[in-house]
Amino acid sequence: MIWRDEYKIGVKLVDEQHQELFKRLGDFIQTVRSDKEESEKKKEVEKTLNFMGEYVATHFDAEEALQKKYNYPDFKNHHQIHEDFKAEVAEFQQEYRENKFDEDFVMEFSGRLLTWLINHVASTDQDIGEHINSVLEKEEETK
Q1: Average per-residue pLDDT in the chain?
Q2: Are 16 and 7 in contact (CB under 8 A)?
Q3: CATH, domain range 11-137
């Protein structure tokens, strides 16, 4: 999974976190699709799931703090999108623990993660960047 500059929203912290998410998800997908032994894949899947559970929450908290700071008008809707995604990741983690390593299930989930991340970063998050950068430009003009 390749990060593209067109995904940048123009807010350094958010862009760095998005890049890290893309990198980790790319590594995850490569592992799942590889010819590695199942035990090795399981370790990587579990490591990625733990990372995603923690990092996604950290990233969303940071992104939402910026939205509040700059009075992002669509904050409630964006927050709900984040909450829904966190619930989906948590649900997958639970199903994974119950079903152990089911390669088809993991592949399906990795595809959903990839689709969600690209769509969210390339579309929804762009509005945040535009809003924050607009506010910052207005602040600069009044100085």
Answers
A1: 89
A2: no
A3: 1.20.120.50
